[in-house]
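Input record (one chain):
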Amino acid sequence: MKRRKKGKYVVFSLVSLSLGFIIAFSYSQSSKKDANSLNISDRQFVMANNLRKQILLVQDKNRELQKDLYDKQETVRKYEKELSEEAEMYSSLAEETEKYRLFLGKVKVKGPGIEISLEDGEYRQSEDANNYIVHEHHVFKVVNELYIAGATAISINGQRLNHNSYIVCNGPVITVDGNPYPAPFIISALGDTDTLVSALNISGGVRDQIVNDNIVFSIEKKKQIILDPVLGESS
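The corresponding structure, as predicted from the sequence alone:
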């Protein structure tokens, strides 16, 4: 009996020892696994935290660069506005300069315009010839009306007029800036053809007045008229 009981105790001890070892081993493995899992989580946290810091730094840098870009854009816009204003000023000056060149007759010009012909009228031997020939006041009337109507350049028999031109009647010829020209007198004018023709053809205007003085008056529209610049001391 005693031997049987002793054998039972030995077996029970061995089983208990085995179970304890198994439990201890399982706990040991579980602890290692938890420790490894904890270490991995810590590393991931550190890496994620570092990435967040880097992202924040990059975002701050981008904001600084954007602000710097906006400041530079404002500076560029300021310069563009100043250049635009200068360009407008210089463009205006260039236009004014060109107008003065035209007025002074210093540049060759071409464009649409009209040609007016003034010819002496036919007269009888018994009548005064002066009542039938073109005088300087006839030419003056035409030239003045053309300038008023917007003509940009005018010539008489090819002689370009300028700011100080003068016209003098000397018998059957008219002198323009010292150069004599016989009739017929061809007055060429650059400008809007319809406006110029309408200005001369106004009822009771220049054309009617000249025709009433027995002068042959004719107008012709031209698609292009070329006027050379004024030469000599008068320029």
